[in-house]
Design goal:
Blueprint: E1 3-7, H1 13-22, E2 26-30, E3 33-37, H2 41-51, E4 57-60, H3 63-75, H4 79-86, E5 90-93, H5 96-104, H6 118-125, E6 134-140, H7 146-153, E7 157-168, H8 173-183, E8 189-192, H9 195-209, H10 211-219, E9 222-225, H11 228-236, H12 250-263
Parallel strand pairs: 1-2, 1-8, 4-5, 4-6, 6-7, 8-9
Antiparallel strand pairs: 3-7
Helix pairs in contact: 3-5, 6-7, 9-10, 9-11
Length: 264
C-alpha cells in the first residue's frame, strides 16, 4: 500500500485522511501551519460598507475564509444581516469547495471560475466587472497579490481584508514523524496543498536534518502540488514536481496521485 504524507491545516485533517484512505492510501498527516482568526478594523469596515450598499462584489478565496468570516460576524451578532446583504450582491468563490462552504452558511454564490486559481478568477471576472466597481477580497494574511493586481487592471476599486492568519506552528509529533520517515525512506508520496505549507515543511526538515540530506530524501519520492503556485514554490526550493491536477481541489490532487501511481 502506498504511504501518502498529507501536509494540510489541522481543520482539514478528518476529511483529508478519510478521503485518502477511501482511495487506498496509507496516510500520515501533519500540519506545518496554524490558523488564527484576524479581527481587524478593516473587516468591520467591510461589514459596514456591505450593510450600507457600497459593495458591488465580494470574492471568497477559500473555504477557510468563509469559516472565519462567519465566525467574526457571529461574535458581534451580525451574521444574519451580513448574509442577507451578501445575497443581494455578486459573490464569487474561487472554487467548488469554497462555494460549498458558502452555501452551508446560506450564502448564494454567483459564479465560480473555470480554473480554480487566482489567475482563473481574474480572467473570469474580466467580462463581469465595470470600471469603478467596488470589490472586497476576503483572504488569508499570506494570500497572493494576483487577484488584487488583476482587478485593478480591470479598473475596479479593490479592498482586501485578511480574516485569518497562517503561521508556522511548533512541530508536533505528526510533523516530526513525517520528517523522520522522509529521511528513512518510508513515505512514497507527498501531497502539498499550499505554497506556504510546502515552504514551511521543507525549511523545517532542512533545519533539523540538513539541506542536502533532507532534500535528497524528499526529491527521490513522488511530489504532488495542488496547483501552480504550490508547484512553483516547490520548484523554487529545488524539487521536481511529479503530479499536479488540472483542477486545484484536494480530491483531484489525490486522484492525480493515484493516476500517476497506476501508470508506473
Amino acid at each position: 500500500m502506498t504511504k501518502l504524507a498529507i501536509l494540510r491545516t489541522k481543520d482539514k485533517k478528518e476529511e483529508s485522511v478519510q478521503l485518502a484512505q477511501e482511495m487506498g492510501f496509507e496516510v500520515i498527516f501533519a500540519s506545518p501551519l496554524e490558523l488564527a482568526e484576524v479581527d481587524s478594523a478593516k473587516f468591520w469596515q467591510f461589514v459596514d460598507e456591505l450593510e450600507s450598499g457600497k459593495v458591488d462584489l465580494v470574492i471568497l478565496t477559500s473555504s477557510t475564509a468563509v469559516k472565519f468570516m462567519i465566525q467574526l460576524l457571529n461574535k458581534k451578532g451580525r451574521a444574519e444581516g451580513a448574509v442577507r446583504k451578501l445575497n443581494q450582491k455578486g459573490i464569487i468563490a474561487i472554487g467548488p469547495i469554497t462555494a460549498d462552504a458558502a452555501k452551508r452558511e446560506w450564502i448564494k454564490v454567483t459564479a465560480i471560475p473555470e480554473k480554480f486559481t487566482s489567475e482563473g478568477l481574474v480572467q473570469h471576472l474580466g467580462a463581469m466587472l465595470r470600471p469603478g466597481d467596488r470589490v472586497w477580497v476576503l483572504r488569508s494574511d499570506k494570500g497572493s497579490e494576483v487577484i488584487s493586481k488583476g482587478l485593478k487592471q480591470l479598473d475596479a476599486i479593490v479592498e482586501e481584508v485578511a480574516v485569518y492568519s497562517l503561521e508556522r506552528t511548533e512541530p508536533d509529533r505528526g510533523l516530526l514523524d513525517i520528517w523522520y520517515q522522509t529521511l528513512d525512506g518510508r513515505i512514497d508520496a507527498y501531497a502539498f496543498t499550499s505554497s506556504m505549507s510546502a515552504e514551511t515543511f521543507v525549511h523545517g526538515g532542512e533545519e533539523r536534518h540538513g539541506m542536502r540530506k533532507f532534500g535528497t530524501a524528499l526529491n527521490g519520492k513522488i511530489i504532488a502540488a495542488i496547483g501552480e503556485p504550490t508547484r512553483k514554490a516547490l520548484q523554487d526550493l529545488g524539487f521536481d514536481v511529479d503530479v499536479m491536477p488540472e483542477k486545484a481541489t484536494f480530491k483531484d490532487l489525490l486522484l492525480a496521485i493515484r493516476g500517476h501511481l497506476d501508470k508506473k
